[in-house]
UniProtKB/TrEMBL annotation:
Alphabetized Gene3D superfamilies for the sequence: 1.10.287.130, Histidine kinase-like ATPase, C-terminal domain
Upper lineage: Bacteria, Pseudomonadati, Pseudomonadota, Alphaproteobacteria, Rhodobacterales
Name of protein: histidine kinase
Reaction equations catalysed: ATP + protein L-histidine = ADP + protein N-phospho-L-histidine
SUPFAM superfamilies: ATPase domain of HSP90 chaperone/DNA topoisomerase II/histidine kinase, Homodimeric domain of signal transducing histidine kinase
GO molecular function: ATP binding; phosphorelay sensor kinase activity
Species this chain originates from: Puniceibacterium antarcticum
TM region(s), chain numbering: 6-30, 158-177
Amino acid sequence: MLNTLSGRFLVLTAVFVMLAEILIFVPSVARYREDYLLARLERSQIASLALLAGDTIDKDLEEELLQNAGVFNIVLRRDEARQLVLSSPMPGQVSATYDLRDATGPGLIRDALKALLDPEPRLIRVIGNPLRDAGLLIEITMDTDDLRKTMIEFSLRILILSAVISVITALMLFLAVRRLLVRPIKIVVGHIQSYAQAPEDARRILVPTATIRELREAEDALQSMETQLTQALRQKERMAQLGGAVARVSHDLRNILTSAQLFTDRIEMSEDPTVKRMAPKLVNSIARAVSLCETTLAFGRAEEPTPVMTLFSLSPLVAEVMENERLAIGEDDVSLSEDVPANLMIRGDPEQIFRAISNLVRNARQAITGTGKPGEICVSARVEEGSWVIEVSDTGPGLPAKAQQHLFQPFQGGVRKGGSGLGLAIVQELVRGHGGTLALRETDGSGSCFVIHLPMGDVG
């Protein structure tokens, strides 16, 4: 029971209602005591009227009047004269005097609690104002025994009533909470459990139905999360299928490229100057393609191998990238430039750095040629604050907003029609493998600029 939300709410409601009743109980008891004493003063004033009506009364009548008033003596002050109207033998000394004429709330509460908690009968003096201005003041002497008994009876009635009210209130709130809060939560939990059994099934996605604003917001958030998760699972499944297809293609492609490598020896023996100049580049390109296929087959997943870190010169590598791109440009009006210091040495995996820069340059070239307008691509490098910085900038059309939102996500960041959107995702993974970062520094209608930061670390 206490482990449930409704059960705890029931207990807390009962406790809080009882606390509220106690806060009401204390001033109620104080008010009851004040009314009791004022009633004694009123009855005493009425008893004194019998004496004021005549000069003398017999002893028996005087005693009867005092008993009816519930006091031992009555003093009435009229015209500045203090007069003992009625009196009887006092059973002891007066222990306290209470003046109701200037009583305050805290004072009444303090006196009431003191009278309620003191079990010993005591003799007290009470002073008040006579009714209808029948004198300056009226003063009585009485004991506290009967007062305390009636206060205890009143307190018990209040506590019993409070308990009944708290139980009824707690029960009503318990039923209301179960109906308005617990039941909708259980429905949501049921939807979550159903969705967890088959998250790829879009039919199990929660449809918000709650009318309570907070629950509706929770259902909306849950629906959004489940929708995104279902889409991610489907995307993951498609990528797994694509990975299997890539592995099969890589296997056959590796065999084809291996056969192509066998012919490179003959090509290198050619006396044609153009062939001699192009043959090493062809050999290197085929070797990289074979290495990429073997890496894909070896890992069987879309992850890059750990980079083999070596210290190498960046300028020749960038020059080779630009030379390959010049061959791909053909008749397009795209100019390539590089600004890499000849003595700049960086630490990294040359093959992976080559692929990263090549992907960025290729993306820029395809963006420019897609516009049908001339453009320029520049690769620059420098040392900056303990890191190597490589920038690839272009004068292309820039990236659209949708592409910027999914810039480094596979199959979602593509800009070119028919593109896979894998280029930037591959570059980011390669750069991360070197402990670096890839960022889009700027993009607008006049072009884009991607920046690679590679930490220097220990280059010794």
